[in-house]
Every structure is written in structure tokens, then in C-alpha cells.
Predict the 3D structure of the following.
Amino acid sequence: MPAAPSHALNVSDQARHHRMLLLNATENAGSTNYGSEFWHFSAADRYDAMMRHEPHARYGPIKLP
């Protein structure tokens, strides 16, 4: 999907504006965007920690009993 990246150039000005609103709101709330999908965000998991250069994630997999 060529229009899926967060900063795709082939979207309308209105779509670009709405994407920036979404990105700013979610990043200000502490989430990290997956740049290849404007709608996909991560918070406190391994991807988020890697993107923020943190030594570890706050949340991760657990072992079920």
C-alpha cells in the first residue's frame, strides 16, 4: 500500500494534516509510530524501547501457568 507510510507524499493535503494530528497526539501521549503504517502505534513494548533507545521495555511477554 503506497499511501500507508506515515509521511507518504502521495496523499492529499487534508490527509497529511490529519496524519500529523494523529501522530502528534499519540506521540505526545507516549506512543511510538510504526513509520510504515500511519495508523500503527506502540507503547512501552520492545519496539517502543528500541526506537527511544531505552535499555528495556516496560512491558513484555509473560509465561502462562
